[in-house]
Design goal:
The protein is mainly α. The chain is built from ten helices and no strands.
């Protein structure tokens, strides 16, 4: 587990480690990255890394958790009377702005970790039917990953429109009838 920061300076250093990891993942898969390599790139001794993280896997967890917090802050832009489609557009806009992180995760074949952590982090703050929530959230992240795999060809508004259809039409119709 990574350590919770008590000062802004510590939090800033932790974010620097996360940013460095994302940069390195753009060049090579996560499994090829070492703690020594991260520290060398940052010009810091390894012991500094271990003040914040127990392992590089903890750094990865911190990266995904930071994404969750960033999205929650981003989602504050949401209007109280926003439609589902507007909420979805906000979701896709956030990820378009964070496409470098998403590409790094995808390139390291860690999409499953992203989906699991994001769903778990979101779920902790919600009430309601857990099965329905997991179904909707994993489906939404699946759509997100497909959008990323195709190079973000559609706009966030277009993705929101397409995805909203999945929530408003009967499942049988969505799965077995060709899209217009």
């Amino acid at each position: 587990m990574y350590k919770q920061c008590k000062t802004e300076q510590s939090a800033r250093r932790q974010r620097e480690f996360i940013h460095t990891l994302v940069e390195m993942m753009a060049d090579c898969p996560f499994e090829e990255i070492t703690v020594a390599g991260i520290c060398t790139r940052m010009g810091l001794p390894r012991k500094t890394f271990y003040r914040y993280f127990d392992s590089k896997e903890d750094l990865l967890q911190a990266m995904v958790d930071l994404l969750t917090v960033s999205y929650q802050t981003y989602a504050l832009r949401r209007r109280p009377d926003a439609t589902a489609e507007e909420d979805l557009e906000l979701f896709f806009s956030f990820w378009l702005e964070n496409r470098q992180v998403l590409a790094a995760i995808r390139g390291s074949r860690l999409s499953g970790l992203l989906v699991t952590r994001m769903v778990d982090n979101t779920f902790r703050q919600r009430q309601g039917d857990p099965l329905a929530a997991r179904f909707a959230l994993t489906g939404l992240y699946g759509v997100l990953l497909e959008w990323a795999y195709t190079g973000f060809e559609a706009s966030p508004a277009e993705m929101a429109r397409k995805t909203a259809r999945l929530f408003t039409q009967p499942l049988r119709q969505v799965l077995f009838v060709a899209a217009p």
